[in-house]
Amino acid sequence: MPSIREAFAATPSEGNRVLAIDFDSVNDDVPDTHTWLITNPGVYNITDERIIASTTIPVIDLNNPNVVKDLDYACENWYAYQVINHGVPRDVIKNLELHCNRLFTLEMKKKLRAARAANGITGYGSAHISWFECFGMIGSPAEYCKKIWPDQEDQCSEFCDAMEEYQKEMHKLCAKLMKMVINSLGIQSDDTDGFIGNLMKNTSPQNLLQLNSYPVFPEPSSKAMGLDAHADSSFFTVLHQTRPGLQIYKDGLGWVEVPHIENALVIFMGDLTTILSNGRYQSSIHRAVVSQIYHRYSVPFFYGPPGDVEISPILESTGKSPMYRSVTWHEFHLIKAKYFDKALESIRIVS
Ligand SMILES: O=C(O)CCC(=O)C(=O)O
Ligand SMILES: [Fe+2]
């Protein structure tokens, strides 16, 4: 059975090339490898550079009795939202931030001991032209921690504990959100557990936890990109951000800033939910910009099915015939690597 690890490995665009740059040592002459040209429309070919701060994605209270309705509205109109009262304890998030900071402020040579393999998605890496570094984990990061801290068992186990604790919370939250998504797509609440069990072939969902770091950019920040425009291929992604920097693209409006709200988590719809919802919920195109003033961290948790489970449209709420053929997450990664922003279009059923 292809694992999520193999599935992502097929996707060169996930950014596994480590262009080791010692961010702290760059003063005001950023090398060309890390300078962004605004004229570059990127893979998603978006040329609209309007930045919108006057309106933003909905904030949903998960304790609100109307939560499924609120979520349906947000998914259909914004493809992304923030949640409050999500149940993830504050100290678990604070500990995650502490260890994120501890990892990325290590000397580059130590971080590189955990460099991801070619086509790998776990361990330390970066992305093309980005002012960004990351560390990916599927389950425990112990194998990498032992390389980073070979003589410091306590550092190693504290880091692993913090990550595993957060992963446990993410599993709980994502299971809750997945039920709500299924519910809002027209499956009665009594049937959601059975429906999800069938959908996932009674196996566990798969996911990738990633720590992202965007150091202070020493030149005007318009000359840098943190992470360029993209849509995640997951069902959805839960993101914790320590500072503002995230923007989502909305047709006709431009790049909408997502404010940093203390104790809120951001949720993006991914490509698999576009398929599942038969096109009603689009995957969110988003990007991360950098700052000349502050260092920002973000922590996405990409939530999806096992690599070999076929995902097909739920037709209950659209009343339309299927718009997409069934695909596994594994197959979809191969398609995305080939077609990028046209991946969903390439599996559309033409009637
Ligand atoms: O840092 C952010 O706000 C966005 C991160 C992201 O989109 C990703 O890692 O896929
Ligand atoms: Fe993303």
Automatic annotation (TrEMBL):
Keywords assigned: Iron, Metal-binding, Oxidoreductase
InterPro entries xref list: DIOX_N, IPNS-like_FE2OG_OXY, IPNS-like_sf, Iron_ascorbate_oxido_reductase, Oxoglu/Fe-dep_dioxygenase_dom
GO MF entries: metal ion binding; oxidoreductase activity
Residue span, Fe2OG dioxygenase domain: 205-305
Pfam family, one: DIOX_N
Family according to the record: Belongs to the iron/ascorbate-dependent oxidoreductase family.
PANTHER family found in the cross-reference section: 2-OXOGLUTARATE (2OG) AND FE(II)-DEPENDENT OXYGENASE SUPERFAMILY PROTEIN-RELATED
Protein name in UniProt: Fe2OG dioxygenase domain-containing protein
Organism: Papaver somniferum
